[in-house]
Fold these 2 entries.
Entry 1:
Amino acid sequence: MNIYIDGKQTKVAPDETVLEACRKAGADIPSMCFAPGAEHKPSCMVCMVRNEDNGQMMPSCSTYPSEGMKIDTCSEEVQQTRKLAVELLLSDHRADCEAPCTIACPSGLDIGEMLCQYDKGNLKMARSILASAFSLTELPCDGCKGPCEKVCRRGTVDAHVQIKAIVKELAAMEDIPAEAKPELASRFSKEAFSSRLGMFSAAEKARLKESVTTKSTCLHCACLAKDGCTLRDVATALKIKTPRFGVSSLQPFKAARNITESLVYEPSKCIRCGLCVYNTKDGFTFRGRGFGMQVILPEESYSNVTEDIASLCPTGALSLEH
Ligand code: SF4
Ligand code: SF4
Ligand code: SF4
Ligand code: FES
């Protein structure tokens, strides 16, 4: 069968979707609720294309071609439709991609990751992250007003993490060898989309104050999936900086739980794409309807879930701890 993709005639098989056909022809169409080889139902509307014959937008992941069909994959109208779909997903997504302290550091130190390693007791890695951005003998912190501490979310709960003191403490641990690796210093990109969490409610502050037991008192704001999140990548590609409808969620911040030793489920980052629901047997399920709908995993179903489900999840809702 012949169809036209952005004006170019292309041979396609009738049993492949428009998304697959367009991708084979080189079109760059994003998708979130679709994964090759996995069961899916269209929900995200990020893969929209336009049928040039009737002007209708359609989800390419669940549309099959017909003879002579003319598909527009990249016009401004199509891009704006995808952008709207992503902004709607983000409007119910209350999470941080990067830790605010990392974004604020003028010297490019990945403070969030350094504190993660520090709290895990992995001091060699914490020092290596530090050494990759700073000289350990001439710390830029000495002449710095500490914007990282000013934006620290812990400060809105009780008192900010003593970031400058921890940097000094790590720098002084001369008996722990640090390896300066450029890739550790350059992971954060100002060009990438960053979802922002917003304010904590009084109840949330009380919960966080009680529940955070880390040595540094860090809330570990950054998302585990920040370097491999499809939602973030698509938002970046569509040049979304401040989503039109804000970012909020009924789900509490960091109410994450371990399903296996490494697999973590964090509901506030779930976009309810359904991939984990349709691709686990007696595992994840939907609860409720409409905007309040949630994806849940009853405790008795934990054993039906394997860690490879994280690779299907297009966000940081299901991720593997590293
Ligand atoms: S799930 Fe993706 S978009 Fe959301 S906070 Fe994590 S990295 Fe950012
Ligand atoms: S709580 Fe931790 S990760 Fe979050 S801003 Fe403060 S120091 Fe950074
Ligand atoms: S946990 Fe991930 S895969 Fe499951 S519905 Fe939410 S976003 Fe989709
Ligand atoms: S990828 Fe097509 S609707 Fe989600």
Entry 2:
Amino acid sequence: MKIAVIGASGAGLYAAIFLKKNHPEYEVHLFDKNEKLGRKLLATGNGHANVLNINTSGEHFNHPSFFQKYQKDYPFGELQHQLASLGVILKKEKDQDYVYPVSFSAPSYVHYLAQLLEDLGVILHMSIKVLDYENGEPCTLKTDAGAFSFDELVFVTGGKSQANLGSDGSLFPVFKKHGYKIVPLKPGLCPIKTKEKTKSISGQRHKAKVTILLGDVVFREEEGEVLFKDDGLSGIVIFNAASYINHLENPERLSIVLDLFPEITLTALVADLFDSMSKHPSFFLDAYLPAPLRDYVMKIAGVGVSNVASKKDCYQLAKALKGMEFHVDSTYGFASSQVTIGGIALEEVDANLRSIREKHVSFAGECLDIDGLCGGHNLTWCLISALVVAK
Ligand SMILES: Cc1cc2nc3c(=O)[nH]c(=O)nc-3n(C[C@H](O)[C@H](O)[C@H](O)COP(=O)(O)OP(=O)(O)OC[C@H]3O[C@@H](n4cnc5c(N)ncnc54)[C@H](O)[C@@H]3O)c2cc1C
């Protein structure tokens, strides 16, 4: 059996490794248009490779029930066991569910996987762009370096986020030509541009409860650190919000409300502010916020330090601190997104992730219409889908 895995990053590396490990008699070939393998993997987890999440479950994905089917066979313990069978040791970040290779280094992890490929005898074809293919017996892979014959093709070509790292979405029109339904591609896990001007607080960070609202209806709530940018909001919690927003049909009228002090009620915050103000009327707010955020909050509360004199003024300030509202203008685009929403529709594959249209074609990873939240969920899907295909 001669198999081509197309895409040598997150899911592709795992697929090639487990295919060859499970079936040493197979000839496994790994293609990528990049010169070096694992380009995107190198960028993950801020260079640390957040490869798994202990609590990955369906709710972290756009298609919870689809993911849940696979999670039953591949709970965290099984994924850890599968990686351990390759010699990969993991470590969990303190107080978090995020899991990393013990080296805490994406370059070390990619280097280790590259050595495994070599050790197992996977044949690499780097700097080769796949242009099209023919399903058949054999299948033909058409590339910019000529045509190759294989018994099976596994496409692991990703979405179109951060095309500089490799996956540029160029094969989706090809899949469409082959009859596959493609769910429209949108950027996920990215910063959000707001209608309100945020330049004066650009670079500031604050923990917040982030609520996505349409009128009075709450769509989503999550706590985390928000980073203010020149033109909007960023940070993991905002990336997750952006994915949520871009999954909606009409996100135009949504607003994002930041509660900068979620651990304290409005009434208690008013009382605290009033108490602080009574002690140091000219600088009491400096105890709560750095100067740029302080000035921003005073502006939206409609008060200046010099005229904060009453409980009513403290109430206005507390309301601004617990209800900083931003109207969504748009999200950042693919160049700044960590995952692509959309892709090959899930009804195009069977339970083994084999195409229902083309007998010798399978898909894994992000090229399928499945995307997860930040925190190792997307690489978890890469590993699970690669294991399914390799099995
Ligand atoms: C900055 C950043 C940080 C991230 N951090 C995390 C994290 O910490 N944890 C997490 O779980 N997820 C993270 N992600 C998301 C995660 O990296 C992706 O979901 C994952 O890499 C998808 O794997 P994949 O193999 O499906 O696609 P990709 O990793 O995109 O790989 C696809 C490969 O296919 C190749 N290819 C595409 N088209 C062709 C073609 N026509 N011919 C030949 N080769 C082709 C590409 O060059 C590429 O190497 C991050 C993403 C980014 C951008």
